[in-house]
Each structure stands twice: as C-alpha cells, then as structure tokens.
Queue: 2 jobs
Job 1
Amino acid sequence: MAGQGRRIWPVQGDPLRRNPSRAATPRPTEPGWERFMWYFTRISGLLLVLLAMGHMLIMHVLVQLTGQEINFAFVTSRWGSPFWRIYDLLLLVLALIHGVNGARIIVGDYIERGGLRSLLIGLLLAVTLIWLLLGIFVIVTFNPDGAPAIGPFS
Amino acid sequence: MNRRPIVSYGISWSQLAWLGHRLSGVGVLVYLFMHIVENATLAFGPGVYNTTQTYFRNLPVRLGEIVLMAALVYHSLNGLRVIVMDFWPRSTAWYRPLTYGVIIATVLAMIPLGLIMITPYAPWGGH
C-alpha cells in the first residue's frame, strides 16, 4: 500500500502474526488508552519480575535462611533506608496497576454486556484507589517513634 | 469397539499455560490486596503489628506462601515468554518449546524454593 511503508509487524489477517504470544490481548492497532495499557503491562511486567521476585526472595527465602523474623524492628531497620521505601512504593504502585488492569481485561472478556461490566470495573477501580492510597500512606508515613499507642495490644 | 477416554476435553499444555497465567495473576492480585491491609497494621505501632504477625506463623499460611511463590515464579516466566513473543514475533516458531520450558523451569525452581520455605515446619526442620 502506498505511503504506508513496509509493515513487517503486525501483519493484518494472520492471527498468529497479529497476536504472536497468543496472550489475552493482541497489540491494539490504534494508538490510545488500550494500546498504552498494552505497553504498560509488558514494561511494568519486566520491572516487576525484578521487584516482586526480589521482594519474595528477600522476605520469604533470605529471611528464612539467615534465621531472621519479620517484626516491627525488622521493618524499622528496613524502612530506615530510603532505598527500600522507594523500592516498596514502586513495587506497590506497579503491581497494583498491573494486576488491576489484568483483572479489568478478564472482567471484560467474560462479561460483554454494558451495565454489569461497567459496574464491576467501576467497583474494581474504586476499591483499587482506596487500597492504593492506604498502601502509599503506610509506606510514606511510617515512623517508629511516632506510632500511636492505641489498641489492646499496645 | 472404539476405546474412548471418558474425559476428553482436548486441552493442550499451551491452553493450560494461558489459563495458568490468568489464575496465577488473579491469585497474586488477591494476595496483594490482603497484604496491603495486613501491612497497614504498621501504622498502629509495634504492639499491634507484632501480634498480627504471630497469626501468620503457622503451617497453613506457609503452604499458602509457597503457592504464592509458585504463582509468582510461573507468572514471571510465562510473562517473559509473552514479552519475547510479542516483540520478536519470529520466536513464535518456538512457541511449544518455550511454553514447555516455562512449565519445566517453574517446577525446577520450586523444588529448592519450596524446600527452603517448608523447612521450619518439616520433620527435618525442628521448629
């Protein structure tokens, strides 16, 4: 086709070429929100392999191997360094958006009718916003000296 | 007489890999939501946080953590395969070996990881 240049990929008409990984979502051909999220899922996924696997290997394997225990003192020393606070913030934000976007796509795949689909996706986004703010609040405002002495266990 | 299998859905390993990606993704997401709530007890000080943590030091929770680790390892490896095949479409020629490779690598990785994680609750661990 004139003016379009030689398009190696995606090639129209061949499903395997259009959706080479056979993942849930082939790359949207038109620019916009859906294509942005398609790229976001893959780029954040790449980062999350390092961040989430690193987090799990430290918290569930290294802590075990070195005979440590996860408690308030452990978190205090860990979040005493800005590196781990930023690491955990990045992990929280990327994992939550990556995961909720995936859930949104799954809901859209199984519920194609408008009303229920909008309701579920709206609820999902509302809950996510609350949980995201809660998670960020806890990491940012953590202060071992200023923790309130409330509740029956204090 | 034809011998027919009673259960014959004809599901391939490749389809299971796709289903596994969804299930592991949803599982990790559900855990993440609970993890954020559990982590929020930090805001109530050491007393509340340390007491809450003691509820998680038992065998059922540890088994759940091992399942979580397996889900994360599988989702990571299969996700890398999806990225490779999306950005280098010529790798689709190795669709099957790559998919089988992801499943085998997940099982192999989970042998040492599972053993380390179960040790405190295992007979040889002496907890």
Note: Confidence is low (pLDDT under 50) at residues 1-13 of chain A.
Job 2
Amino acid sequence: MCLSTVYINSGERQKVVMQDVAQMKANSDGFLLIGLLGEEKFVKGQIKSVDFVDKHSVVLEKMQKERLGS
Amino acid sequence: MKISVCGKGGSGKSTVVTLLANEARHKGLSVLVVDSDESNSGLFRMLGFAEPPIPLMELVGGKKNLKEKMGQPNILAERQIPLAHIPSQHILRRNGLMLVSIGKILQALEGCACPMGVLSREFLRKLRLGENEIAIIDMEAGIEHFGRGIDTSIDAVLLVVEPSLESITLAERIRGLAGGIKKDLWAVLNKVNSESLASRLRNELSKRQIDVIGVIPNDSTIFEACLEGYALGQGEATIAAEKVLDSLLSKR
C-alpha cells in the first residue's frame, strides 16, 4: 500500500501518529501530516527512517537538541 | 449485512452482484451495491441505471486533485456513514436499490490504486446499515483487496467460481485469506448448466473446505444483456440467485 503509517519513537516503543497518510509537509521543527480522508495533525520531530516497500512506514523521533534539552 | 463478492476475473462477480441485488429488492430489502472494482465500468448498466454515480473518490478530489482537496471536510471523515448521509450525487437510488462507486482508473500512467483501496476499506468500515438494509460489494478481481484490508469490515465473503481450474485454485487461496481475517465464506457456482458439472465442482471445492450454496446457470438473457448493455432481466439465473440470497440471509 503506497499510503503510509507515521510513527514516533516513544522510549522503547513506537507510537502510531496517523494511518493512511497521503502527504507530509515539513517545517522547521516537525511535519504536518495529512490523511487521505482529510484529517490533519502536526507532529514535532525529525525523520529517523522510511520504509517504502514492506511496512510503508515513516518513523519520526524527537529532535536531537530537544532530547538534549529535556 | 455486508457481503463481499469475490473471485477470478471474468467469473461473473458483477452478474452475481446484480442478480442478488435484484432479488434482495424483490424481498423488500434496501440494497446498497458498492462498486469496489477500479477497472470494470459497466455495473451501473447491469443494475439498470442510465449513468454511473460520481465516484466517492471525488469527495477527496479524485486521484488527479487529491492533494488540493484532501484537507476539506467530507462524509468519509465522519465516524459513521448511514446511507442517508451519502451525498445525492454520489449515490444512485431507484426503488430501494442504491449504487455507489469507489473510483476508477481513468488514464494511463496515473499511478496505483492504493488511495481507492484505503477509501474502500474506510467506507465499508464506517458504513452503518439499518435492520432492513444490506450491502453487496462488487470486489476487484483476484486477491489484492485482502492485502489492502478492504474485507476487514464485511460480514461474509461470497466466492464466485466458474468451471475452470484457475477459478478453483483461486477459490482455495481466497478461502485461506478470508479465514485469516475470520470471515465466513461460501461459494456460488456460475455458468454451470448441468448437474454433473455442478457435482464435479462441488466435489473439488469440498476437498478445499469450501461449501457451495448455489448454482447459477448460463442464461441467455444474461448473455444478451451483457452483450448489448441492458439491465439484467428475469431468467433462469434469477431463480437460482433467489436461492443463494435466501441461503445468505439465513446465515445472518
């Protein structure tokens, strides 16, 4: 399936942020996720990995400076 | 009840869908036919509509304008979709028979059908039917819809099997896939004109743990209607389809 699920790393686990994501728009500290059926969600973070073939997933993680500061 | 009609390409899924929909109407049920096949385009004719409905894909802008229209509110973003909430331009209605279409591949190089698969899955998941309403889904040929999760919200799978080894072996694969998501599955034999042939096919399917709930014969009225693009009329197949529908409804 070409549409992806976006996850964010949360400690040892991955948490689903949104399914059936059709578009991601980057800004300085995160991404606006837009789902096929119209839902939108902004999530802070940077891309850790993208799997285009098997899981069709985008994994985000908190920004490095954010983690150091927290 | 949501019934997904599956099978090999050319096995007669759209014909069986139409026959069952017509019989359901005669029994006084409201019937929603969901055209979930992004390739074939003639289901509306078989059902006796003059034009196809505007595909639900257009609610999110269609494949061409998907990105521009994606953020706008539409019924597909609602938690539940009762039949009455489907906008009139996207649903054809005639005497309790209704038709919606998910979307069609229209141009070369337009890309994959993944968005239609998601839309189909979500529409069927959110679709809420009343006591006297049933939905019959005309699936795309083959098995990709199982991979896409389109069948997860349906109540039962009706397999259309024609007299060919290819159709039988695909039926076995579909049984496995439907079992994987814990869906009831029954087969209907199509284009079968003799009891001996029906018996051979029943036997082959029985070896594969597939129960046959009906046999639809080759019917000259169907042949003629499909050749000329008419609505399916009454014929031998109609009587057979009534038995299949009765069997399905008894399993509700």
Note: Chain B has one domain: 2-250.
